[in-house]
Amino acid sequence: MSDQVNSWNKIVAALPGSHFLQTTEWAEVKHTVGWSRHELTWRDDEGNITSGAQLLVRSMRLLRFGPRLSVGYVPRGPLIDWENAAYREKVIESLEQYARQHKLVFIKIDPEAVIGTGIEDSTPTNDTPGTTLIAELQQRGWRYSPEQIQFKNTMMLDLSGSEEDWMARMKQKTRYNIRLAIKNEIKVRKAEAEDLSMLYKMYAETANRDGFIIRPEDYYLDVWSRFMQAHMAEGLVAEFEGIPLAGLIYFYLGSRAWYVYGMSTNKMREKMPNYLLQWEAMRTAKEKGCTVYDLWGAPDTFEKTDPMYGVYRFKEGLGAEVVRTVGAWDFPANSILYFIYHQVIPRLLSITRLIRRKQIKQEVL
User: What is the pTM of this model?
Assistant: First the structure.
């Protein structure tokens, strides 16, 4: 890893809300699909870096003979103490200026500014960093984005305490299923480089079964291998008598780990391999110094009709707490082109997604 990569990643790791989507490795992944990276930092009067943002910019033509349009995106950022009003104003104003100066159609942010925890009261209070930020963004002309790239809500597992403490925080059924997987002689091992293609095929099978769209194999193998080589990701495989049944890949940076990719086959699901996988991920993440395990995603509305409700119940069983954030917000530097962008692109995507779904079915067969 170069000194430049080390330098930026060290900055990211030291900032509030540090996230693997703000690392150089993620920017390099996105560069392969057309995004360029721009490192932005803000300092205090003593010269110390207080805030940062890795801004990704992409240029495209909406129509074959139309003008090239550029958009900006700060995935899971900016990284900032959202309770500091002076920092907020400086960062948001700088991003607006950047969008205007570089003639971007819009700039998107999706910071982890918290509006609340749990689902007991889905109405945000008025004294959280997230609700304060929303009010300020609305006042400045930002818009809640019609294109939410990341999950607005997530679920966090506390890795403090002993493994007995973890078990105590879980639902009874989850504890039972973990022990059942052990009794059923499910074994979990670390994934090696040669396992990644197998994990992708398992991921494609999962996507086909559960009805979501994924990218081609080369993309995931690039992401997984790049972060593994940088010691920021690890894969786990659950097996029975050497037969792979399920897998996962989680990322880690600083004191936090993220469960991002999960995959499974239809084989021997009654042996509960997915439960033991999460248990081992928690254990290995703590060994790496993580104190929080982000289970990466929760429903927008906590109702049984939400397609993610079943996933939410699984994560809740592990003892995770819901964390609700502000979601993605756009600053439309060019309001006319912003309107065109969000009218044309969704129609094009609906066609490409249909084609991709057919390709996934072929990859599973």
Answer: 0.90
- Residue 256 tokens, joined: 């936090």
Element (H, E) at 87: helix 85-101
- Start-to-end CA span in the chain (Å): 38
318: left (phi over 0), alpha (psi -120 to 50) or beta: alpha
Contact 156, 294 (CB under 8 A): yes
- E strands, 215-308, are 233-240, 243-253, 256-264, 292-294
CA–CA distance, 72 with 62 (Å, rounded to integer): 16
- 224-275, pLDDT tens digit by residue? 999 999 999 999 999 999 999 999 999 999 999 999 999 999 999 999 999 9
Distances (CA, A) of 131 to 3, 170, 174, 277, 279: 38, 30, 34, 36, 34
Strand pairing partners for 107? 72, 331
Q: Which of 149, 157, 155 is nearest to 327 (CA)?
A: 149
Phi, psi of 178 (to 5 degrees): -65, -45
